[in-house]
Each structure stands twice: as C-alpha cells, then as structure tokens.
TrEMBL record:
<protein>
    <recommendedName>
        <fullName>PRC-barrel domain-containing protein</fullName>
    </recommendedName>
</protein>
<dbReference type="InterPro" id="IPR011033">
    <property type="entry name" value="PRC_barrel-like_sf"/>
</dbReference>
<dbReference type="InterPro" id="IPR014747">
    <property type="entry name" value="Bac_photo_RC_H_C"/>
</dbReference>
<dbReference type="GO" id="GO:0019684">
    <property type="term" value="P:photosynthesis, light reaction"/>
</dbReference>
<dbReference type="Pfam" id="PF05239">
    <property type="entry name" value="PRC"/>
</dbReference>
<dbReference type="InterPro" id="IPR027275">
    <property type="entry name" value="PRC-brl_dom"/>
</dbReference>
<dbReference type="GO" id="GO:0030077">
    <property type="term" value="C:plasma membrane light-harvesting complex"/>
</dbReference>
<feature type="domain" description="PRC-barrel">
    <location>
        <begin position="8"/>
        <end position="57"/>
    </location>
</feature>
Length: 121
C-alpha cells in the first residue's frame, strides 16, 4: 500500500475483497509501533457485526475504497480483537498467521554494537 497516505483518510472508506465484493467499512487504522507506518485496518463487516482486521501492505487504495487481496470468507474469519485498543505482539502474530504473511524481522536489541563473535571464541 502507498505509505504516503494519511491513515485518517482510510477511516470510513468502503473495503472490498479480491473479487470486488464489498466487505464493509474501515473503522480503525493501526500503525506499526516502531515505524509509524499504517499496518492494519479494522473493517466493520456489518451493522450488528464485528470488526475484521486486514493487512494494509498487500492492499491497494483506489478512489472507490480499499481493495484487499483476500477472499471475503478469510477476511470475515480474521481474529477480532475489538477496536480502540493497542494490538499486542501476540495478536499481530495471530493476524500474520491468519493471512499467511511472512513474519516481520525481529527488532535487534542493539544493532549498532553487535559485530558478531570472532572465530574460535
């Protein structure tokens, strides 16, 4: 997804599955803690329904809404953690697994000072 998009501009947009079927409306956008880049969206799937979390990275924003490259059934079966709360690392891991996404690299504790070990030590 384009990284120069204001996350607030996604809220209220219609969301569509890979076949162009309407899934619902973007309710919330979740940013990556480390980078501040929009990473997940919670899509309200119906008037009395729940929110389905969808990944923004493989999704595309068009004039008519957010197009998510997954089947409607997979999206509607996504874990629902409720909106308005921070996603824990465990919840994010569940979402990565649900969508069969490659896991992001683990952050290094001190990347500037880790030079490895000398052979033989």
């Amino acid at each position: 997804m384009q990284t120069d998009i204001d996350p607030r501009s996604l809220i209220g947009r219609k969301a569509y599955d890979r076949n162009g079927h309407k899934i619902g409306t973007v309710d919330e956008v979740y940013l990556d803690d480390a980078t501040g880049v929009p990473e997940w969206a919670a899509v309200r799937t119906g008037l009395f329904s729940r929110d389905a979390f969808v990944p923004l990275e493989p999704s595309e924003l068009a004039e008519n809404g957010l197009h998510i490259p997954y089947e409607r059934a997979l999206i509607k079966d996504a874990p629902d953690f409720g909106v308005g709360r921070h996603l824990s690392p465990e919840q994010e891991l569940q979402l990565y697994r649900h969508y069969s996404l490659a896991l992001p690299p683990a952050p290094s504790e001190s990347p500037d000072t880790d030079f490895g070990h000398l052979a033989g030590q």
